[in-house]
Structure to design on (683 residues):
């Protein structure tokens, strides 16, 4: 086939990260939980090397996290520093390592830090204490008797400071000197938990820190965590330079406080990035995509983590359907990550074959597609900035994913000028990035702001073409979209569950949408009907959306409202505003709203890979489940890439696609997909 000549685009329309170093982690991993109480006997008594190997082979596994020390504080090998489980009479960890080596499975060892019952009982002075002098764990179980139910994930937290760190380092040294391993995996590292126990107070005094000065306390707290992370990583590297190191918690973001920790880059002490996302119970299926993009820019291996559990970690007898595991694994590859599925070993040491049959179903597919995704570079012309509000970020991400807007995260990118447009959520900017976004704007970069995202300390970040008058006059208000942003939006005023900021646009600013205010806020004194007050017929003087040159401001926090209420009209207004700025997207795909896309680049193979996913998670009780993978047919795809395309074919089938050139773009049609497919585009 003769190559199609695609006109060369400006460099601002394409993002290409540096090539990642060769993958050292293993593409199909298991995280084998093993937290066992001293009240359970015969630990590992039924471990059988061949049965253990059969399970891993059935699962098509090539790497595993095994347990050196679990949350109960017991170790699973003979130790002179810690204590081996009292009902374990042989070196279980060593036997597991040997079994893995025989079948070519990489081995990383798990070591708990923050939760260790035995250490908390032997050294109550090591336990974390809040600023109010109380133990958060004791507050959680307050009033419960010994025979009352214990809440899940209820442990004393041990901050890594003082003599506890010395004990950790001694045991890590013992492990590394006695076992050949490929890495160490440290769990329960939570830098957002500030400690005020006696060790911490003595440390504050020694460093001249006033414990009532929250800022000074955090700075010293940060120094202590960084010292622990640095010294531990250095210890591992000194004894085994080839071993990977990961501190779980440094890449966590299940609340805004953790997201704000990203600006301090605690994750920089890792040699790889494991992203622990349990979509069924922890944040849903739209959490992982933006996290993968944030960390992929940092040029280290990415490992996506989910679990075989119906709900979450620690669940015995819970099974996620094999098709859901398959979809999750395909999603991980589609977003460039290695795949890790969590399991939990029975105290007896017997591997659950039903689990590995399900995992094998997923990993067989991963093996077919992994070379078309894992370690690849994310390519996008639309940028998303991660501010300090997780809910705003989640709302924006959902609107992007549901409209199949291919994007990358800008926070960890050095050069923002390569993005055509950057979205700033209502969570705003971190101080360190103010100059960067202003320079981007001064150089002609396009910005889309949501709500208060255009403000920093109450002042506009850039000129948005309006003066801020204040917050809304009422509890809610209504939007009327004008034609420029009116596609697929009703002509009538539509509800906003929180009122917009009041803006006074400058004469040369274009108004894109108007506001109608209610007659009054709904209160005990003034109310009408069951819910919100109806709108006034005349428009307010302050607008809902404005455009000034390369800047669009949507005056409502549509990201927060979309996350909370999911109104499609809010998503359409956001998308239409973005479309005015996003004039030259690299890829366009027509999919239902639960369709997901991601464009990857593999320059060494001279190809792009466009991944498409479709599944419909359903909220059932406390969890999201995927039960039905529905086929889609005749999916149109349009590409606008700066290259001469030689051929395009489906992955993993290899079926070639017919290409049509039109106005500098190449289009094709995917005949059918179920759950996942990808297009390899060679040049």
């Amino acid at each position: 086939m003769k190559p199609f000549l695609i006109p060369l685009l400006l460099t601002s329309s394409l993002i290409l990260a540096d090539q990642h170093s060769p993958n050292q982690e293993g593409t199909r991993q298991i995280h084998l939980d093993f937290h066992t109480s001293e009240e359970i006997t015969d630990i590992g008594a039924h471990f059988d090397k061949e049965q253990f190997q059969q399970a891993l082979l059935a699962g098509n596994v090539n790497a595993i996290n095994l347990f050196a020390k679990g949350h109960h504080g017991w170790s699973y090998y003979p130790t002179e520093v810690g204590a081996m489980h009292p009902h374990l009479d042989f070196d279980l960890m060593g036997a597991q390592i040997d079994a893995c080596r025989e079948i070519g499975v990489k081995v990383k060892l798990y070591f708990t830090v923050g939760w260790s019952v035995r250490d908390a009982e032997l050294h109550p002075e090591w336990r974390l204490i809040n600023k109010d002098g109380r133990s958060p764990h004791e507050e959680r179980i307050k009033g419960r008797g010994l025979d009352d139910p214990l809440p899940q994930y209820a442990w004393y937290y041990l901050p890594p400071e003082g003599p506890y760190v010395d004990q950790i380092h001694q045991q890590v040294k013992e492990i590394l000197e006695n076992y050949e391993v490929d890495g160490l995996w440290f769990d329960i590292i939570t830098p957002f938990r500030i400690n005020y126990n006696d060790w911490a107070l003595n440390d504050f005094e020694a460093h001249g820190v006033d414990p009532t000065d929250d800022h000074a306390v955090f700075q010293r707290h940060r120094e202590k965590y960084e010292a622990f992370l640095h010294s531990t990583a250095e210890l591992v590297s000194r004894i085994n330079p080839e071993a990977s190191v990961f501190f779980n918690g440094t890449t966590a973001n299940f609340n805004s406080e953790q997201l704000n920790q990203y600006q301090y880059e605690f994750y920089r002490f890792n040699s790889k990035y494991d992203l622990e996302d349990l979509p069924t119970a922890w944040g849903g299926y739209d959490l992982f995509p933006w996290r993968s993009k944030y960390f992929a820019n940092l040029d280290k291996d990415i490992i996506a983590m989910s679990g075989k559990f119906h709900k979450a970690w620690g669940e015995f007898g819970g099974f996620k359907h094999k098709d859901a595991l398959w979809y999750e694994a395909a999603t991980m590859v589609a977003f460039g990550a290695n795949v890790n599925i969590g399991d939990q070993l029975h105290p007896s040491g017997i591997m659950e074959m039903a689990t590995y049959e399900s995992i094998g179903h997923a990993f067989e597919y991963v093996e077919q597609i992994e070379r078309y995704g894992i370690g690849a570079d994310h390519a996008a012309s639309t940028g998303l900035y991660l501010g300090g509000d997780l809910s705003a970020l989640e709302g924006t991400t959902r609107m992007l994913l549901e409209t199949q807007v291919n994007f990358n995260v800008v926070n960890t990118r050095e050069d923002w000028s390569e993005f055509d447009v950057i979205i700033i959520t209502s969570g705003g900017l971190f101080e360190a990035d103010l100059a960067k976004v202003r320079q981007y704007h001064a150089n002609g970069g396009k910005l889309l702001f949501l709500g208060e995202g255009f403000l920093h300390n109450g002042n506009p970040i850039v000129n948005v073409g309006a003066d801020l008058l204040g917050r809304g006059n009422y509890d809610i208000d209504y939007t009327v979209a004008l034609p420029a942003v009116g596609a697929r939006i009703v002509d009538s005023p539509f509800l906003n569950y929180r009122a917009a900021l009041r803006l006074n646009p400058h004469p040369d600013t274009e108004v894109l949408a108007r506001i109608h205010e209610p007659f009054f806020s709904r209160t005990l004194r003034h109310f009408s009907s069951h819910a919100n007050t109806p709108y006034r017929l005349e428009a307010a003087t302050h607008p809902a959306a404005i455009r000034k040159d390369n800047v669009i401001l949507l005056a409502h926090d549509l990201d927060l409202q979309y996350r909370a209420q999911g109104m499609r009209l809010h998503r359409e207004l956001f998308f239409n505003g973005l479309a005015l700025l996003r004039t030259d997207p690299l890829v366009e795909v027509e999919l239902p709203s639960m369709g997901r896309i991601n464009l990857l680049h593999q320059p060494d193979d001279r190809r792009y890979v466009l991944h498409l996913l479709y599944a419909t998670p359903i909220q059932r009780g406390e969890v999201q489940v995927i039960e039905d993978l529905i086929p889609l047919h005749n999916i149109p795809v349009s590409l606008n890439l700066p290259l001469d395309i030689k051929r395009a074919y489906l992955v993993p089938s290899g079926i070639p696609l017919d290409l049509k050139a039109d106005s500098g773009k190449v289009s094709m049609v995917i005949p059918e997909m179920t759950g996942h497919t990808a297009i390899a585009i060679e040049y």
Summary: The first strand starts at residue 4 and ends at 5. Residues 7 and 27 are 36 Å apart (CA to CA).
